[in-house]
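Limitations
The structure tokens in this dataset are predictions for the assembled complex, not deposited experimental models. Users should treat interface geometry with appropriate caution, especially where small molecules or nucleic acid strands are included. An illustrative entry is reproduced here so readers can see what is and is not provided.
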Amino acid sequence: MRVGIVGAGFMGETHARAWAATPARVAAIYSPREEPTRKLAQQVGASACPSLQELIDRVDVVDVCAPTDQHAAIGLQAAEAGRHLLMEKPLARRLREGQELLRACERAGVHLLVGHVLRFFPEYAAAQASVARGDIGDVAMLRLTRGSFQPWAGTAHWLTDESRSGGLILDLMIHDFDYAQWVAGPVESVHARSVRSREADAPGDYCLALLQHRSGAISHVEGAWAYPQPLFRTALEIAGSEGLIEQPVESGAPLHIRLAQQDAEGADIVAPTSPLAEDPFVTQMRNVHDVLAAGAAPRCSAAEALTALRIALAARESARCGWPVRPDELDGEAE
Amino acid sequence: MTSLRVALLSSAHVHAAGWLAGLRQRPEVKVIGVADGDGARGRAFAAAQGLTWFDSYQAALAEAPDAVVINSENTRHAALVELAADAGAHILCEKPLATTAEEARRMVARCQDAGVILMTAFPLRFSPAVIAAREALLAGNLGRVYGCNATNQGQLPAHVPWFIDPQLAGGGALMDHVVHVADLLRWFFGSEVREVYALANRILHRELDPQVETGAVVLLDFEDGSIASIDSSWSRPPEYPTWGNVKLEIVGEGGLLTLDAFRQASTVYRRGMPGAQLAYWGSDDNQGLIDDFVDSLLQGRPPAISGEDGVQASAIAEAALQSARSGEPVRL
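Predicted assembly:
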């Protein structure tokens, strides 16, 4: 299986490392940024392609790690050429684009997998499995927190441009929106408040969202791009009719190293890490490989990724208009 | 005033013994006895605490106490506040002051007319950790506050059945606990809540067929533009190592402040006891509250918590219940 990675940024590198642990081979890299592309291609022994079409021509699977607003165009081109797709989350910037991607992949008979990697983080996967087994009865209250510093603060990076990335809600909180629907089922309505929905140029962003699930369960989702560097924190709690699962902030960190001499330099972007025999991105990529090579079931279906996008877009709309928004009633123009 | 005679009106609330213990720490205070609308409960409380028993509220008030502490069921606060105010007694009332803003306002007006103090029991304002958090905020360490994610989750107080009786409690988990943190946030931010949204359900403790919400979370919009959520669910199972928590995580332009008000506890494991227990060793917030109430009367100054504080917290809880019913945000 030959894989082509579109994008040579943080996620492109992360995916390239993860693919290395599978039988698949990263054969091609393309991004419009020549130098990072050449560097990543050299690192993984792939060809640096001068165009997207050339990458598509050389591979069986296109792994899209490009900026969110380009997902749809890249994905449609790859699908029309009959290539399987792994799309980094979020599926697309706009609902209509997500819908088009699903239709195009169905038409072309290719897989559309979406990198909702949280489903492969062991504490999240174990809690979901516990709920699915009935260990804690019916879910009443699901609490999810995810926060970091503002990535690429003060730069012209695409992530800081909401029209391109969808901001905190679409880029970061969508992890937890997807997880919430995985654990507690379909979401009827979303009510959200955020800093940047009121003040577009605030230095940080912070959002609180409440989800009403069809089952009666409630999800509370907190997202922050406002912490001091290099803080990244997540928390998970599920209260059910028969029990409680708690994973408070930092409780899953078995190792802390506190040095007298600290490197003051912070990263531009980080992913949460806990020392594990297998990186969750690798676990995800092994699943992706097994789906494509051996017909295994995907952990996250394209339809679920589209629903996660709907929930996130509903949160953005609710924060804008001030009222609860039903994800099912969003029109294609939602962004 | 150099000494105080205090009567307890009702022992319905689980905090009654705590207030009594606080009063007994003060040499200037003499607790003259307890009355209770439920004779059996009141007699048992009086006997257990070594208190004089009055067989009616009127009998207790006929002793002309300087002050009373009201520990009745939530919806019975108003009637007792009016009785006490008419008798000229200053009042410390268990939270929530009332289950509707309108009723709370009437109570405050009645006390103003009678010239007596009406203090609502929000003991968290006397937690040293809470005070330190507020000082950090007031010093501007966080800059502009974006928002706060708070929990005041607890175990369902199953041993006191009125807590899940809508007629007596006026609500469930939301009415019981939202007011504590709502009051702290008003105090921290120096700003009022302008809009309330809430979701609630009855999935936890389904075995009790609860007629009130057992799971609830509210989302508050403050006038200064900050946002906050409070999860007041009865989501700690009976097996949980402690009664619950009060946690606030406040995010602002300048960083992150996390407050876990009951973190000062050791974990204790005992042979023959299932699971761990948390043994709290932090300061006694209840004593701070009692001291402020007593000192305000002795010194003739207003207490730290005003009637308006009680009204606003009740208004938030009432609006939250209304929002949970309608599915829409409620303007205050």
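Some entries come with short summary sentences. For this one: The two ends of chain B are 39 Å apart (CA to CA).
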